[in-house]
């Protein structure tokens, strides 16, 4: 009898725990595996290596340095936020793996680390999360999607962020080259590289390997499923003359407003009009016809920092938010095309909130952005009207083969006996090295 009474409450306890673990139910196949913020009051959504803001969201499986995720909830009572991670295929679709296949711990956890802003006009709550942590450890390499959600007043996803976990199972050697042929020689770069499996078994490289190459984390123009130009017995060579070329672009534009008492470079005016600071940037001009000029950018990213009131020890909670006005001079409005702000500050996305409006009086495209104090990179891109039209990153920016760019190489392997895309190498190349 005692044994039966023990079983009933135990089963009830386990069922209660399981129900709580799987309380947030979403259709995996309907989740878009993209970087996206769905709530207007969430700002400065970041994911990078711990204590390295300008890094990419890529970590080594079992490595010493993990990822740091953070965001700010603006001017409202702190919400209870939860998160989970989902394994994805090499081309960013939900994989067929179950949570227990790729992770240890709980598949639903609360983000418990948060702090209120200090001495700022704009009140916000800063949330942060380290991956991996005591509640969640990853067992497999590959592509992942971090999903942040709330349960009340209604269950919904509030933001998603991509990240990658790699293993060093093969060797990659290569370099960035601007020695391209014909019409491409003035504006393009390419990456030549070789994959050496060492002792890692790859039986059919043309079918089993999936190779992706990305410029400056601009994933919308990545080359995926690249094919080798030569397959040897102990190496696979990728050295095409004109098959996988990247427009080199130009160095990113930049500005810095870490100091709200002084106008720094490219800041024209700073004014406090209750309840916000307003920042006017120096009007931009087209760079298409300008010669190449070297600049120390961070390839589209941004860094949060402040010198406000001589207090910069904790920029994540001491930095102020401000309304920043971008202006791009143009004597005429473009026909059948729109201009957008572009960079990490817009999640590298083309969305309505990043579309610039043409001001007939100032003869310029303008956009207001609500940004946290720091140093920002950005550029202006043109998107023609019509379905399937491709973004033009160079109409206002120009392109030069001397431009400094990062190139991120991801080598995935799908073993016939396994059901997921394993990330067996990650290598970052730079055009200056």
Structural overview:
By secondary structure, this protein is mainly β. The strands form 7 sheets. Strands 1, 3, 5, 7, 11 and 12 form a 6-stranded mixed β-sheet that branches. The longest helix has 20 residues, at 2-21. The protein contains 4 helices and 29 strands. It is globular. It has 3 domains: 24-166, Immunoglobulin-like (Sandwich); 171-248 and 404-430, Immunoglobulin-like (Sandwich), CATH 2.60.40; 253-384, no CATH class. The protein has helices spanning 2-21, 99-102, 205-208, 315-318, and strands spanning 36-37, 42-49, 58-60, 67-74, 82-88, 103-105, 109-110, 113-116, 124-131, 136-138, 142-150, 156-166, 171-177, 188-196, 209-215, 230-231, 236-238, 245-247, 253-256, 267-273, 276-281, 302-304, 321-329, 337-342, 357-359, 364-372, 374-384, 406-413, 422-430.
């Amino acid at each position: 009898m005692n044994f039966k009474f023990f079983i009933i409450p135990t089963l009830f306890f386990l069922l209660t725990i399981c129900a709580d673990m799987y309380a947030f139910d979403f259709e995996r196949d309907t989740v878009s595996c993209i970087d996206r913020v769905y709530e207007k009051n969430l700002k400065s959504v970041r994911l990078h290596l711990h204590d390295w803001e300008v890094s990419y969201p890529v970590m080594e499986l079992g490595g010493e340095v993990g990822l740091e995720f953070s965001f700010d909830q603006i001017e409202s009572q702190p919400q209870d936020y939860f998160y989970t991670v989902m394994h994805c295929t090499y081309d960013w679709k939900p994989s067929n793996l179950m949570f227990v296949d790729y992770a240890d711990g709980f598949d639903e956890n609360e983000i418990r680390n948060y702090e209120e802003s200090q001495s700022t006009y704009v009140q916000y709550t800063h949330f942060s999360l380290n991956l991996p942590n005591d509640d969640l450890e990853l067992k497999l390499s590959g592509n992942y999607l971090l999903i942040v959600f709330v349960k009340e007043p209604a269950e919904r996803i509030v933001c998603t962020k991509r990240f990658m976990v790699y293993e060093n199972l093969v060797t990659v050697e290569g370099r960035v080259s601007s020695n391209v042929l014909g019409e491409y020689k003035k504006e393009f770069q390419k990456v030549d590289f070789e994959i050496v499996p060492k002792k890692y078994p790859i039986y059919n490289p043309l079918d089993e390997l999936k190779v992706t190459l990305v410029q400056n984390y601009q994933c919308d123009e990545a080359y995926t499923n690249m094919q080798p130009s030569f397959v040897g017995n102990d190496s696979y060579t990728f050295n095409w003359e004109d098959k996988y070329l990247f427009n080199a672009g130009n160095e990113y534009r930049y500005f810095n407003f870490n100091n709200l008492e002084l106008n720094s470079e490219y800041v024209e005016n700073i004014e406090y009009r209750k309840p916000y600071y307003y920042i006017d940037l120096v009007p931009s001009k087209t760079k298409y016809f300008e010669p190449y000029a070297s600049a120390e950018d961070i390839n589209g990213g941004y860094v949060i920092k402040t010198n406000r009131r001589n207090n910069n020890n904790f920029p994540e909670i001491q930095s102020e938010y401000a309304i920043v006005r971008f202006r791009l001079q143009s004597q005429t409005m473009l026909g059948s095309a729109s201009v957008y702000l572009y960079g990490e500050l817009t999640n590298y996305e083309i969305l309505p909130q990043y579309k610039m409006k043409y001001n007939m009086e100032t003869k310029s495209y303008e956009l207001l952005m609500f940004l946290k104090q720091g140093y920002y990179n950005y550029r202006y891109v043109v998107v023609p009207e019509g379905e399937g039209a491709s973004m033009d990153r160079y109409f206002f920016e120009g392109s030069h083969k001397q431009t400094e760019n990062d190139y991120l190489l991801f080598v995935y392997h799908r073993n016939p006996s396994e059901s997921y895309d394993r990330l067996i190498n990650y290598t970052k190349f730079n055009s200056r090295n």
